[in-house]
What we know:
The complex is a heterotrimer of chains A (597), B (296) and C (325). Chain A is an alpha+beta fold. In chain A, helix 17 runs antiparallel to helix 18. The longest helix of chain A is centred in the N-terminal third of the chain and has 33 residues, at 2-34. Chain B has one domain: MetI-like fold, CATH 1.10.3720. The radius of gyration of chain B is 23 Å and the shape is globular. The two termini of chain B are 27 Å apart. Chain B is built from 12 helices and no strands. In chain B, helix 2 (26-46) packs across helix 11 (258-285) and helix 10 (241-253) crosses helix 11. Chain B has helices at 14-24, 26-46, 80-115, 120-134, 137-147, 154-179, 182-189, 194-202, 207-230, 241-253, 258-285, 287-295. Chain B has 296 residues and is mainly α. Chain C has a domain at 89-286: MetI-like (MetI-like fold), CATH 1.10.3720. Chain C is built from 15 helices and no strands. Chain C has helices spanning 3-32, 37-40, 47-57, 63-76, 89-124, 129-143, 146-158, 182-216, 219-226, 231-242, 244-261, 264-270, 275-285, 288-316, 318-322. At the B-C interface, helix 4, helix 5, helix 6, helix 9 and helix 10 of B face helix 1, helix 6, helix 7, helix 8 and helix 9 of C.
Amino acid sequence: MADTKYLLYLSLLVLLLSGCQEQQNTPEKNTADTEKVYRHSIDGKPTSLDPIKASSVYSNLLVVNIFDTLYSYQYLARPFQLKPNLATTMPQISDDGLTYTISIKKGVKFHPHPAFKDGVGREIVAADFIYSIKRSFDPKNRASGAWLWQNKIIGLDDWKQAGADYDKDVEGLKSLDDHTIQISLLQPYPQLIYSLAMGFAAITPREVVESLGAEFGSKPIGSGPFILDQFNSEAAYLLRNPDFRQEPLDLTAEGYSAARHEGYGLEALADRSPPFLDRLEVHFINESSSRWQSFTKGSEIHYTTVPKDKQNTVLLRKDPIELHPKITSEYHHSYGMEAGFVYHGFNMADPVFGYHPDAAQNNKNKALRCAIRSAHDWQQKNRAFYFGLGTIFPGIIPPAVPEYDADLSTASIEKDLMAAKKMLADNGWQTQNLPEFEYHVTGSVLQKQFFEQMRGFLNQVGYPNQKIKYHPYPSFGNFNQAIKNREAPFFFLGWTLDYPDAENTLQLFYGPNQTPGSNNFNYQNPAFDALFEQSSTMLPSAQRTALYRQMNQMVIDDCVVISGLSRKKIHLWHKNIITFPDREIVGGFHLRFVDVQ
Amino acid sequence: MINEPAHSRLNLSLWQQSRQHFMKDRWGILGLLIVVLYLLVVIGVWFGLWGTEWSAISDDFNQGPSLQHWFGTNAIGQDIAERGIYATQVAFEVGVVVTVFAIFLGLLIGALAGFFNDTWIDGVLLWLMGVIDAIPFYLLVAAVAFAMQGHAWAMHLAMIAVFWTTTARLIRAEVIKLKQLAFVEAATAIGFNPVHLLFRHIIPNTNHLIIIQATIVFISAIKTEVILSFLGLGIKEGISWGLMIAEATNDIQAGYFNNFLAASLLLFILVIGFNLFSDAIQDALDPKLQKNHEKK
Amino acid sequence: MNSWWFACRKLIGGIPLLFGVTLISFTLMVYFGPDLTYELLGKNPTATAIAEVRHSLGYDQPFWHRYLMYVQQLITLDFGLSMVKDQPVTELLQGAIPVSIQLLLPGFIIGNILAILLAMKAVQNRGKWPDKTIMTFSVIGMSVSFLVIIIGCQLIFSSSYGLDLFPVRGWQVHDKNEQFSWLAYLNYVTVPTIALVLISLGYNTRFYRAVLADEVNKDHINTARAFGHSDQKIYYQLLLKNTMVPIITRTLFSIPMVIISGSLLLESYFGIPGVGLITYEAIIAGDQPVLKAIVGLTAVLFVLVLIGAEILYRLFDPRMGATQK
């Protein structure tokens, strides 16, 4: 009796659920008919969308779609090539390399906002760019991009000292007329132009920023191809900017080559003006299983990178990369190496592993660092954590930059237990007198596994377990704080390039940049610093590349880092989507070119 | 409402009866055996008899079970069986330390609060419980762990600080209920020392709640450790089932279940054993049930 | 005694509780909480840049000043902007709290009712196989990791590898006219609810069984049985009524947790923009305005629940109230 009743309830429930299932599919189809929606996914969450705070790749991805930058990167050309975006042409640079003159496009309008007259977006003028750069130097703003222009532009640092009054002029930032900008530098700064393609330099309207205050970061108004509609902790919903400037896509100018880009349907986009989408959704999905299931569902997200735990279902062969036919028949794919790398670093200011005032001890410490580097097995790490797809390279100039030296000796990335043991023995290191080895890192299961593998490597050269300590931090902020306060003798970090120039990684070892600056190693080498200063004002040339490589060798010889490995990403997207995704170097510019068939 | 009379609660040979009753409970004996077995494993790890190779890495990633690796290997080539065994010790340490302190604290404070119901003592203690309960659980645990950054016992302390309140509230409510029973009222009326009454007669009458609460806290402690370790606030040195399961959530999606199965199985068997054991104790300690059994 | 007077007195009694909660949580957050400074810094910061960020975050203000500001924010319910997201905290929570309630309520109710029913079944057959089976399953439920349950449910019910019945991620419960749609809601809430019930069932069943088992041996139950009342009546009326105190205690005290803390894992796996994720992110990032709001609101809610519990106790157990006079 009672059992029948339960059965009845159960069947009712099933009926109810299946009923709503049928219902649910209909509205979705309706929207699909009328508008083009593309659902992108990323594996982290953006924070503030104020350009001056866009320090993460996730924030940057949205910022470059909501705002305009003067320059951007060509859609398809690799290695990365700059192109004018809001600027009409590449800048005119004076012969001494100190003055940049940039003209901007006419008639480009901001998104509508009540703070504008009549609520209609007004035209962008040169003064908007100047205002946007100044914002990074306003101490009230908590901007994170000021390092790009610090001590570079005439009068900008003084403007900040004088109280950051936006009505006061900066000598090095002039608007010659409404559509011409002139930037004057203290010394030549060849990387300036790259900085103008970064989210940090995106153009913001003063009246909106002033009416919203800091809230601007969650209600951004720019002039980019998309307008932010909704933004929560799970996704950002963007709408097409109907007034976006008409710029027919020139595939050749964007670096199209049939060899690399055929078969994706990109040809159909030629001569059409982006953005092609009506709605762009960017979903923030940390959990790889959830992302994968949503992607393979078919009706949800359209794009994903292949998570580590799915690589064995997706990959048929690693070298050369070949995907499973089941995957290639259902999805488009592409793959590419990251513009960045992971590395282990020593804090040279720590007398146990780093510099020591006593010359003998100093040499001993160096031998210890070099022995640890020789004990480290990049191959095993690559196979365990990067599915064997990573590219291992010696030193700190990664393969993603043009200055990379493919012929550099690989001695510094080879595991050599014999050499390591010999080095320890020759320098008087025994199990008893080895110092305690602390491994500092942001706490997570994956990082703990990295640590455990590292401990295993060290065990093999006689480092006992009880002398190897795991030191996790609850958040990246805490970890970063410890590094900046020189509390972490050994750390594992990744570096993502801001622009395709090795200067971006070499500056990590420049003496004056010591912590709290970006030189987390507190590496101090006058010879290195001299070369760095010499090269920093040089335009790209064979001569500059030679200097870069010389610096690279110094860092390798001093055993400051165990470096490095550039990870490889495999992108998958649904067949009805036309795109060529890339998340490296200011990722996000490609989204305006996405189309739905 | 009918109130139960107080007879049989003060029976002096209660413990003897309970033991006899327990010995007849086959499931309870099984539970006890399991718990003892785990204890032996833990002692073995302590003395370095087994589980010594838990940290060694190798080139054989994600291997299936074999003679050499009973449960296979994990993503960085470590022996899962060795790790599971070693982790048993860690789990016991966390579970036991947290349970003992949290229950003791909860019992003491709950009994005091209940006994001095409606005095300022109760007020202050309730306030304290309220304050702790009102802060979201993980926030409080994270805050305590943050506050003691780097200390090996930070996680234990954080859990104890949070877990005792539930016990205290239950005990308090029970003590208030017991206090109103005829036998307590009578005892107070004829001038029994209240503290003596509390410790000799009221607290022992709450042991069924304590045992249940202890199992819940024990399991919660082991499982909370999973999440805290996940956040980098948990176990730092060594390995725990929590860490193994957390590691395994990555492996599962790639189709490797060894780590997950080994850790979950170890946890599951312990929990089952512990529960059978505690159920049996609960039954044995429950005078009413004994009477019922006798009737049958 | 007048219930209103009783409630008022309890409300006034809640003030010290609020004070304690805010002070303790604030102290922990101020002195030991995560420091946001180093999260916000640029790639090549200078010592002045650090000082500037600290100043703009208010870290350089004295403790009491900051605490009083906090109390003021609590009273005016204006917590300012999230430091990380540049969004007003009230706006953030207004969006997220209803979502979390909608997400967790069905699972919370079903989980508790189901657990009571199962516990009842177990107690009715105490020591026999239904009891042992139910308890074994509850232990299995307790030992399987939450993550695995969530991933499993998603795989079975939602993914194209499984039954493919429900969406994997999302929370589009409003239709185009911004009207709440029950069908869409059911569509999105079903799988998380199943997961939530599975997660909590083991713990709840075990707890309720213990409570009921304790009660079932009491003399009045035997008396009722002797008077020839049916088993159903005994179990569902007498027994339930008498065990209401622990049941209410447990249920009520999980409410603030359900509403405010939400369920981080459910939200992040099912892509639901609830308050659990916001809390977690705020903890990890050290977003103090958000943390302050969440801690403060939980405290207020908790005090309300506490008062509610006291009043309900009086309803179900008159003897408990009698001593309050």
